[in-house]
Design brief:
The complex is a heterodimer of chains A (386) and B (340). With 386 residues, chain A is of the alpha+beta class. Helices cover 53% and strands 13% of the residues of chain A. Chain A has 10 helices and 8 strands. A 4-stranded mixed beta sheet of chain A has the order 1-4-5-8. A 4-stranded antiparallel beta sheet of chain A has the order 2-3-7-6, with helices on one face. The relative contact order of chain A is 0.12. Chain B is of the alpha+beta class. Chain B is built from 9 helices and 8 strands. Chain B has a 5-stranded mixed β-barrel. A two-stranded antiparallel ribbon of chain B has the order 7-8. In chain B, strand 1 and strand 2 form a beta hairpin. The chains are: A alpha+beta (386), B alpha+beta (340). Chains A and B meet through helix 7, helix 8, helix 9 and helix 10 of A and strand 7, helix 7, helix 8 and helix 9 of B.
Amino acid sequence: MLDFSPNDAQREVAEVARDFATTVLEPRAATLDREGGFPHDNLSRAAQAGLFGVNIPPKLGGRGAGVVAYSLAITETARACAATTVALCVTNMVGEVVTHFGNEDQRTHWVPRLCRGELKAGAFALSEAGAGSDPGGMRTKATRTDKGWVIEGSKLWITSGTDAGLFVVWARTSDAPGTRGISTFLVGGDTPGVVRGKPEHKMGLNGSTTTAIDFEGCEVGPEALLGEEGRGFPVAMMALDGGRVGIASQALGIGLAATDAAAKHVRDHEGPGQPLRKEQWAQWALADSATELDAARLLTLRAAWLKERGTPFSREASIAKVFTTERAFAACGRALEVMGAAGTDEAEGVERRFRDVRVSMIYEGTSEVQRIVISRGIARRFADQA
Amino acid sequence: MNFELDEDTILLRDSVRDLGKQKAEAVRGWESARSLPADWIAELEEMGLLAMRVPEDDGGAGLSTLAALAVLQELGAFCASTALTVAVHNMLGLGLGADPDSGAGLLGLVRGVEATASSDGFVLHGVDRVAIGATTADRLAVVASVQGALTPMLVSRTDAVSSTRSRTLGLRAADIGSASFEGVQAAGLPGDVVTAQTELRLALGFIAAGIGRAALAEGTGYAMERQQFGKPIAKFQAIQWKLADLATGLDAAELMLGLAAARTDADRPAAAARATLAAVQAVTVGCSDMLQIHGGYGYTEEYAVERLYRDAKAVALYAGVRSEARATVAESILARFAAQ
């Protein structure tokens, strides 16, 4: 039987997240956006609320509530503060990646501290100046030494790069071409040779930091290697697939918040000659956003549910990500249009959503990359039938 | 039929385009300071851009409508905040009957307030949260409702106008803010509100086209330079189609804008609405696509496309394309068929 209602555990996590969003995040979101910087207090409170390890087993300090619960929680926090939410998403995924690929020592060393908030945030160091959509262009190298490895290279677009206490770092460990010969390392934020760059000046998500990280003769022990040597690409793919569910959930929350604001505006304002709620152009805008975000929500939760069941979900994660981010973007644009030029004033909160949502079509794989993933899946299915 | 601008207009357009190249760095500073410096306004005045439509005999630049709009498009391509400021001063000033001659100082725009007739003009009440030139314009052209009838009037800065700057999505260097009036005296203007709205909307369409042209150049340049998967990303269809769509949309919009600008008949308001609608639709989508081509870099202030994208959306909202412009177009279609 199809059943789209959340179970008790999922509902509980969503309620915790909603409460955290309305009491902690919402009141300070506008100020955080204006002043910028790493959201220290928001994140330590998120950790206290148990939102750092929603899909991490309780024995490692997480909630063990599953992927659907994670998705619901992220949508709730993103309604209030997309910037804090992106750091929250990445931290959760770092915990999942270490839990999934790490050995017992790595798990027990890093994951409980991450979940408790002791590491401030987790971060992925994957992209480089020449390796964005194409990870095969990666140049960062890890060279084996007597004591372990030396990592050398420059990474870009690191969410929480200013403060993260744990980096998951991808580097080449052999000269094999393309994505072969890439390995994954766990690098503590206080490791000598980790050089944090200055935060980028971004259009949005200003209450989170995005930096370059240089690894300059960064020495790590043999225990830093996560998973098998040369098998870093599958780790990246798992992180990205899971990350796409998170970003879809985040974009959904942003789109819903903008649509709510537009609906309140329509309820409370007069158009030329009649109340705005009687103007079809305003009604249509709200109807389109509601319809598209409803579809987006179902696609996102389906991808989360598949991942939770342990079935392949890569294609569905890409479908959810491209559809939800693009429709949430459209919803934010429509919300501005409904409110008119007054909606561009920072005080309304909608222009922040419009700026924040834009990057969701870029990070965690651009819309173009998602379409490549989706079309490859289709091509494979038809090839099998040939 | 003639699809070419005249030689003088081309020369003027090119000189503004060159000015844009000189000012590219300065514009970044104005936008982050959220203000146009006084010496830049003075420079515009010196160039005659604050009296574009005033006849040469009266000390103005004596430009045709099309030439003035071409200037606005070029200003829009490098600083939409400047273009909006100049557009309000010139096009609106003329339409509303406020003399845009530079001597009297910069004109701003206020809408959505109420006025009552008094013995020596009007008395204003109300707030416009998106007044242009709210805190610095020397004079404010006001379109106020007098018992439901939109009426043009003028207020001097020295009167009791209370105003604050807003922090806005786009057009950040333009002086957009809240202007409030509690019993402020205003003098009536002889102009026509529909004419003024038409001229401002047309100006915004040209400014949007300028933003679109700039974004197309940014997107194309980046696509040719950026290498992924061993080749410039301009070789990928997903990138090429974005460039093709914006280029096509801009071509169509510019022809419609030119046609609307040339019209002097009763269809001018509807033609202006159609053209501006086409322009902002192509340009808002196109600027987002050009940002997308830049990937993560497009989301940073390091690349101009980030500002172009925000400004395109802001211009679309000022042009009122979601409802007002479409309503104007629809009314003209219905009227034409009713007449048959």
